[in-house]
Amino acid sequence: MLRNVVVIGSGPAGLTAALYAARANLNPLVIEGLEAGGQLMLTTLVENWPGYRDGIMGPDLMGEMRAQAERFGAEILRGHVTAVDMQSTPFKVTTSDASYESRTLIIATGATARLLGLASERSLLGHGVSTCATCDGYFFRGKPIAVVGGGDTAMEEAIFLTRFASSVTVIHRRDTLRASKVMQVKAFANPKITFEWNAEVEDMTDVSRGEVDGVSIRNLVTGERKVIPVEGIFVAIGHTPNTSLFKGQLEMDANGYLITHSGSKTSIPGVFACGDVQDHVYRQAVTAAGSGCMAAIDAEKYLEGVPQHLGKTTETMNDELRTMK
Ligand code: NDP
Question: Which of 2, 65, 79, 234 minimizes the number of CB atoms within 10 Å of its CB?
Fold first, then answer.
C-alpha cells in the first residue's frame, strides 16, 4: 500500500507532525524508533510545556501526544528504520520487519544528548542529572550544581544556571576550553562559576537515595581524587543528531544536522525534517512540536501537487522545481 506520509520518529516533533497529518486525512504511519517518545521519556517534571501550569511528567506528556495522534487516525508502529531510499519516488522505508512506500517522508529522528557512560549517570538521569539547563535549571534554585564539558553548550548552560544555582562548578577534561572566546570571557567573569580543570567525572552519588548529593572527580594530571558536594549535575558534552540513515542522501551541516529551508524542506522534494534532527539551537519540546506542525503542513501542500512527481528521480524533481522558480 502506498502511503501519503511516513513519519520517522515519535518525539514531540514526530507526534505533532502525525497529529496534523492525521487531521488533514493523510493517514500517516509513524515508525517509533528505538527510543519511542524521544528525549522527554528520560525526564521527570516538564514545567515549560504551555498549558500545564503545574507541569506534567515527560512520559505522561508523550503518552498524551501519542493518544491524541492515534485518536485522529495516525498509525503508530513499533520498530525502527534500518534503511531509507530517497533516490526516486515513492520513497522506500525499511524496518527490521517490513518495508513501506510513501509519497512523502517526515524525518523526526531527533538528536541524542551525549552522556559520559557511567551507570550512576543513567540511574540519576531526571533525578538530579540533566542534559538540558533550560528545561531543568529552575529546579535548582539556591543549590550548588556542576556542569560537565568545555564547549559553547557547557558555558552557555553554566552561565544560564547561575541565575538559579548558589554555585556552578564546571568540570572539564582539559585545561583549556573549546568554547568561543566571547563565551569564555563571560564564564570567567561570572563570580558564581568556578572551574575544575583536567578533571574526569568518575561517579555520581547517591544512586541508593535516587537523588544527587555529589560528584566524584579525578585530576588527570595529578591523579588526585575528590568529591564535590552538588545537588544537580548538567552533562553538556554535545549532542549527536540521529542522521546516519540519511548520509549521502540529504544535505547536512558539518555536525550532521539536516539542513532545512523555507520551513521544513530538505534537499529532496517531498522529504521534510522537524525537531532536533535539524535544530541544534533551540532544542525544546515546544519548538520541536511547532516544527512538526510545519512539516505536516509542508507535506500536505507538497501532496496537493504530487501525482506528477511519482516515479521520478529526485534529480528530475529538483530540476523541475528550479525551472518553476
Ligand atoms: P562541542 O562538541 O563543541 O563540545 C563538547 C565539549 O564536551 C568539549 O569541551 C569536549 O571536551 C567535552 N566532551 C566531549 N566528550 C566528553 C567526554 N566523554 N567526557 C568529558 N568531556 C567530553 O559541543 P557543544 O554542544 O558545546 O557545541 C556544539 C556546537 O554548537 C558547536 O559548534 C558550538 O559552537 C555550537 N554552539 C553554539 C552556541 C552559541 O554560539 N551560543 C551555544 C551552544 C552550542 P574537549 O574540549 O576536550 O573535546
Answer: 2
